[in-house]
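Example record used in the benchmark description.
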Amino acid sequence: MGTASQLDALKHKIKEEIKASIVIGATIVLHEPGFLPISEGKAVRVIDSRKAF
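Model output (structure tokens):
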């Protein structure tokens, strides 16, 4: 984990790289590793039952 100024610099760098890439400003929020919840649902399979031409 870095200092507050290092984290601010990282947030600024990420924001500028995203803006340069997609031409839209973004709000960047950094969290501790493991912060995001594990997916609670199971992936749903999609079966394409259309007839081929």
